[in-house]
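Handout, page 2. Input:
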Amino acid sequence: MTARVIHRVGSGRFRRDPQANPVALAPPGRPAHAGCMDESGNFPIIHFTRHLGSAEAQRLRANGDLVRVRRGASTPPIAPTTPWERDRHDALSMMLAVRDCLHVPFAYAYATAALIHGLVDIPWDGRAHVIQRHRQGRWRAPGLHHHWALWDESDVTVINGLPVTSLLRTMIDCALYLRADYALGVVDAGMRRLAAVSRFEREESERRQELVRDELTDGVADRARAKGIVQARDITVNASGFSEGMPESRLRWVPLAGGLPGPTLQLAIKTHLGTRYPDLAWSMSQLTGDVDDPRVIAEEYDGVDKYAPTDGERPGAAINRQAKRDEALRLAHVDIRHRFARDLDSPRALFELMASRLPPAIAAAARPRPGLMTRNW
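Output:
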C-alpha cells in the first residue's frame, strides 16, 4: 500500500494524510539517510563539507578516507566487486548528496526511484532524478536532473526517510523515459512485486498480474501526451512478472522488438530430473497449430555467476550440473540455447539467431515493434 506524503525540504518534516499508511521516518535530528537499507545493504553515508570544514574535508580526501561525490559532498570509499555494484553505490551516493541543494518539494523519480525501490540494476547516467511541481529558479546543479511534473499525493511515498514516487508511478515513468530494454526490465520487476508472481502458482499469478496491468494501462493512458507514450504502451502490453531479472527481460526484449511472437516465460517442462523452467520458450504446437508437436524452442540467459562453484563444490561441478539439465530438457523435446551478456550488446544479430530457430513462416512474418526499437538495434 502507498502512503500519501509530501516532503517539505528544509523543515525536515513530512505532511502526511491522516488516513495514509504508516511509514518509517528518520528520527528527528538524524540524517534521513542514516541507517537506510536497500536490498544489498546500507545506503552510503554522505559527509558535507559545510559540516566538516573545507580543510578537514580536503585532508580526509587526500588520505583516501573520503571520495568526492559532487561539490561539497563526499562519502567513504568502498571496493565494489562488479560494475553493477559500483554504479549502484555511485547512484545512491549522488541521490543522497543532491538533497542538500533542493529547496522546493520534490520526490526521487525515474531510475533513481527504481533504485530506491530495489527493483533491478540499471546503468547509471551520472545523475539523480527528481520530480518537482515548481521550478527552483534558473539554475542547474551537477549530478541532478529535474523533471517538472504534477503529481497527486498518492503518487509519492517514503522509503527509509526518502521521498520517492510510488512503485506504480515509478513503473510508468520508467516505461516512458528509459531505453526500451531497460524500461521493460523495470516494469517486469514492478509487476513481479505488485502481483506477487510465482512460477509455482502460475494461474493465480497471471490473474493478479492482469489486475496490475489494468492499473498500469490506466496510468499510461493518463500520460497520453507525454514523450515516449508509444514505447510505454508497448512496454505495458508486454510486461511480465515471470521475468526473474534484468538480463532475462533484456533477452526477451530482443524477439519482442523484432516482432516475433512473445515467448512464454518460465514454462514448466517435465523431465526425468524433475520440472525445469527455461527463461524463454516457444511451444511449436502454438506456433504451427499442430497440437501433437511436442517440440519447444527455448532461450536462457547465463550470468557470470551461474557456473561458479558453490561452497564445497569441485571446480566444474556447476558446468556438469547444467549439462545434465540441458540433456534432460533435450530428452523432453526442448531445444535450448544459452546466451550471455555479450550477446545482449548486439541485439540485431541475436534477433537473427533467434528468428532462425523458429518456423520460417513465423520469422518471415516478423515486423519490428516501433515502440520497442532502440538506437543500438
